[in-house]
TrEMBL record:
SUPFAM superfamilies: Bet v1-like (SSF55961). This is SRPBCC domain-containing protein. Pfam families: Polyketide_cyc2. InterPro entries: Polyketide_cyclase/dehydratase (IPR019587), START-like_dom_sf (IPR023393). It comes from the Bacteria.
Length: 146
C-alpha cells in the first residue's frame, strides 16, 4: 500500500468561529473558493457530501466523500475514494487551531491505495490548490471581521 501526504497551513487574524462558519458554508464556496468550487451536503459526521474541485489547468472533478469528523470550530475531515476501496483513497482535513484571537489553519490530505505510487505531478497541483484556498479563506475571514 502506497501513501502520500500533503499539509499546508496559514495564519488567519480571525476567531475560530468565523473561520468555521466560512469553511462550512458550502453554498458560498462558488463566490470565494478557487479550489473547492462547489460543495453540497451537511458538515456532520456520517454525512455524504458532493464536492467539486478545480485544479489549475485541469477540468473540474467531482467526488462524494463521507464526513468523518465535524468538530465545531476545530476540525472538518472527510474520506473519499476513486474506483474501489484500496485503489485511491483520500482523507481530506481542515484543522482550526485557536491561538487566542487568531487561527492557525491547517489544510491537508493523506492519500493511500495501490494507485498512489503512480501519481506524482497532480499532487503538486493539489498542493497549489490547497494554498490558493487557504489564501482565499484568510482574505474572506479577515475582511468579514473588519
Amino acid at each position: 500500500m502506497f501513501e502520500r501526504y500533503i499539509e499546508t497551513a496559514i495564519d488567519i487574524m480571525a476567531p475560530p468561529e468565523r473561520v468555521w462558519a466560512i469553511l462550512t458554508d458550502f453554498a458560498a464556496y462558488p463566490s470565494w473558493n478557487p479550489y473547492i468550487v462547489s460543495a453540497y451536503g451537511k458538515p456532520a459526521a456520517g454525512a455524504w457530501l458532493e464536492v467539486h474541485i478545480q485544479r489549475r489547468g485541469r477540468r473540474t472533478m467531482m467526488f462524494r466523500p463521507t464526513v468523518l469528523v465535524a468538530d465545531v470550530n476545530r476540525e472538518l475531515r472527510w474520506r473519499g475514494r476513486l474506483l474501489i476501496p484500496g485503489m485511491f483513497n483520500g482523507e481530506h482535513f481542515f484543522r482550526i487551531e485557536d491561538r487566542s484571537g487568531t487561527v492557525h489553519f491547517v489544510h491537508g490530505q493523506a492519500f493511500s491505495g495501490l494507485l498512489v505510487g503512480l501519481i506524482r505531478g497532480p499532487l503538486s497541483a493539489t498542493r497549489a490548490g490547497f494554498e490558493a484556498m487557504n489564501t482565499a479563506l484568510k482574505e474572506r475571514a479577515e475582511r468579514s471581521g473588519a
